[in-house]
Fold this protein.
Amino acid sequence: MENILEIKELNKAYDSFALKDVSFSLPKGYIMGFVGENGSGKTTTIRSILNMANIDSGKISVFGLDSVTDTIAIKERLGVVFDSLYLADHLTAKQIEKQLKPFYKDWDSKEFSGRLKSFGLPDNKRVGEFSKGMKMKLMIAIALSHKADFMILDEPTSGLDPVARDELLDILAEYIENENRSVLFSTHITSDVERIADYVTILHNGRVWFTGTKDELNEKYVILRGAEEDISSALREKCIGFHGYRNGFDALLSTEYLSEVTDKLETEKANIDEILVYVAKEDRHERNDENDKV
Amino acid sequence: MKIVIKNKSELPIYEQIEQQIKAQILEGKVAEDEQLPSIRQLARDLKISVITTTRVYNDLAEEGFIISVTGKGYFVAPSNNELLRERMLCEMEEGFEKAVLNGRNAGLSDDEIIAALKKFMEE
Amino acid sequence: MNEMMKMIRFDLITVSRLTVPYVAIFVAVSIIASLFGLTFGILCVVNFVMIIAPIQGINNSSCKRLYGMLPVRRSAVIKALFTEIFVTMFIGELLSFLCLFIGRSSSLYKMLPENLSRIASNYSELPESKYMKMYLFAAAAFAFLTIVLCFAQMRSEIINMEAAIREFLIIVTVFAAVTTFISVMIYNEKLRALKDILLPPTTAGKWLSIAILNAVTLAAAYIFCTVTVKKASNKEL
């Protein structure tokens, strides 16, 4: 399977934050949900893919091209949707088309005006007056009009109402019907990617915590519940984000330890949101432990 | 073809779709040799992942409900309904076996188990 | 179209909707004003400069994401920016020349009320050699502004906006001090030689000075641009 995006051991350090050995890849024809809490490094990774951040080490290829040396060739075929519009507010969609057209060999004006119509975007109104959802659709219309084969969406749904979010999923589902295209979709609203994503990459504290198909993720972890006296200390060690309370406990458990779970404990499927919550809890435990040692 | 996905169901999405397609094939609601939507069309229509629909079609093809014609897509398998019915019956029996075993383990009498089954079916 | 031209076109469209109507009205007003005499023309040109300078700032407003997604090299973006500064300032210079020329040639000032027309006619009746000084002054003003703008642009690209503004203020202060000093010296006949260089007595000499001023400005803009491309091309967005 041909990869549209390949990141190998990406390292990038800032003063207070660093991406550490980030590696993952996205095959052609699929949607990847790129999730993690705010500050987990999603945006830095995307900035690195776009060559907006200078990476310290590692290699990123898009369409098999190097993200640093071939960045122009990559961007010709890449659509980007940010959480806010990158264009001048006082222009109309028509004027924006005039601006962008010369930069793309494959710009299709018919496609653009068709998309404006189908997305319900007026071409004679200032884009600054557009709603958040309309701005997002405008950025998608731009990507579709230059025949982008790969779309990167950075937190496109933050601040969107549920109707606009659903519309976005519709658009992406249609986009991916063509098997040569891929989508990297960064979000912290995981319900957006829960259904539509084929692959999921979870970033946590600048590291890849999980990367693989969504089905693998769903099958890899369960939520474990029960009374604290019913869990062996050996199993408890293997729990992620163990949360004890007066009447019992809950925790995330890798399914490889399922054989050690006794009948008294209950297991349940875990969705991406729950997984993220337990991962964050585990982190707090570790910090607390360290503080205790000090 | 009609497919309804319940997000809150305990069954994974791929199983929900498989069951519904199987049922419609067995009931004859989908004619044999009829072409099914492509993997990507189905994913788009249901707004689910392509990997999920790929899995559905692979499973259904493996079980003989549909066949894949290279370059053309997926079709409902020519009527081998006897075989398929046989398989469904077999699955039913397996389910019964498990249910009866669990019931007996729980200390129910045979009559109580049958009564429970009847009640279940009325629901 | 090469990348730089695409970028200039891009910026032109961004700026045009905001400013083209104002600039057009403004040019018309200053030309009409010049018809009634030089004073009014000069007033308008000064205003013109004040309008142009903020336009330059518009391109600068955070377009990081835009540059992140557009298939365009950073160097082309920077080159476009410097070209835009130079060209707009050069057009401003030509416009002020035009106003000066019209102001001297037109006799419409006679239509003005008496006390106003006296001010205007004073200039129209200036001898050629004195009048040429005005051209030289306009050229020097635009050269100075262009160089300062280019320098500020360079510093803001390489470091950041605040540092650039601080440097900008220092440079303007130092420049003002030096020019005042030189002007006083020349006025007191202490620097005859320098005066002849700065203010050549002949018309041809003054045109030559204007040409040299423009050439120096172009060279400065080019150098600042090259340095910026070299230092800021790989900067993070």
Notes: The CA atoms of residues 89 and 146 of chain C lie 6 Å apart. The mean pLDDT of chain C is 79. Chain C touches chain A at residues 1, 6, 9-10, 13-14, 17-18, 63-73, 234, 236-237 (CB under 8 Å).
